[in-house]
Design brief:
about 55% helix, mainly alpha, Rossmann fold, Tyrosyl-Transfer RNA Synthetase, globular, three-stranded parallel sheet, 14 helices, two-stranded parallel sheet, about 325 residues, 2 domains
Length: about 325
């Protein structure tokens, strides 16, 4: 099922919101090229999503929408394993076992728990606290070699490695120790209204700040037209011009042009014309994704088959690891 000559790469995304243009240009656009060098396993992390209260019907819809969008973007389910986390019970089973090899002090140090607790003070649940252990289980089940990590996930990878090394020290070489992986650099896209912070699908304070992949195309155009710039009407990169720099980065990322070429192309052009050009370039990139997404969404049987086959492939690999773990800790076989 997997090519023994290739390393395994594992990545997951929560279905708590639709991917933004920042998610797409920063990561998803490059994921489809990873299959050339890695065996790729991509999870829709719906178990992680319920650490925050979800409407059940909405979560089911967004989970299905996200797997459909993965395929529309270009992740081929024949060449990658794409599955729902909740369809593989081994995630929950291994998470419980690893909880018993994880120290409270380690979990207390997790900055993401502190940040999420402050945002969701009415629902500080134990799942939120042990979130890194489930993430460790996600990774270790598949004997993952490398995990794409951003700065906000480094702590989680570190605790995953610590848990795996602790278990291996007791029971022998059960888990591979995963390494962090910095994929091909994607564009770092900032918010349209707040270009000092990256554009994120979790950014909901101002809807005009974020472009979502499934936004209506006219809405995308209007969001770019309303984006924050400055008053001197000069299109160039500069720390003193975060809004313009961000729009130039977006334009470069969707057209494939260099930063220098993009800057030169708009020299002497007014902000209105510049924003229109950026909007057209973004729409040209996103339109075929949306068209493919709509086509796939109407093919219920195909998406159902992808979901089932993905779960079967993921379960086969995950259960091999889980059986080994259960034997090591003394559970009946």
């Amino acid at each position: 099922m997997l090519d023994e000559k290739k390393k395994i790469i594992y990545s997951a995304m929560q279905p708590s919101g639709y991917p933004s243009l920042g998610n797409y240009l920063g990561a998803l656009k490059n994921w489809k090229n990873l299959k050339d060098d890695f065996d790729c396993i991509f999870s829709i992390a719906n178990m992680h999503a319920i650490t925050v209260r979800q409407d059940s019907a909405n979560l089911r819809k967004k989970t299905r929408d996200l797997i459909t969008l993965f395929i529309a973007i270009g992740l081929d389910p024949e060449k990658n394993i794409i599955y729902y986390q909740s369809d593989v019970p081994a995630h929950a089973e291994l998470s419980w076992i690893l909880n018993c090899f994880t120290y409270m002090g380690e979990l207390n140090r997790m900055t993401q728990f502190k940040e999420k607790s402050s945002k969701h003070s009415e629902n500080i649940n134990s799942g939120l606290f042990t979130y890194p252990v489930l993430m460790a289980a996600d990774i270790l089940l598949y004997q993952t070699d490398v995990v794409p990590v951003g700065e906000d996930q480094r702590q989680h990878l570190e605790i995953c490695r610590d848990i795996a090394e602790r278990f291996n020290n007791i029971y022998g070489e059960v888990f591979k120790i995963p390494e962090g992986f910095i994929p091909k650099v994607g564009a770092r896209i900032m918010g349209l209204q707040n270009p000092s912070k990256k554009m994120s699908k979790s950014e909901s304070d101002n809807d005009n700040n974020v472009i979502y992949i499934l936004d209506d195309l006219n809405l995308i155009r209007n969001k770019i037209k309303r984006s924050v710039t400055d008053s001197d009407n000069e299109i160039r990169y500069g720390e003193d011009k975060p809004g313009i720099s961000n729009l130039l980065n977006i334009y470069s990322a969707v057209t494939g042009k260099s930063s220098e070429d993009s800057e030169n192309e708009f020299r002497g052009v007014g902000y209105g014309e510049f924003k229109e050009a950026v909007a057209e370039a973004v729409i040209k990139e996103i339109r075929p994704i949306q068209e493919k997404y709509r086509e796939l969404s109407s093919d219920k049987a195909y998406i159902d088959s992808v979901i089932k086959e993905g779960a079967d492939k993921a379960s086969y690999i995950a259960n091999k690891t889980l059986r080994k773990v259960k034997k090591k800790v003394g559970f009946p076989q």
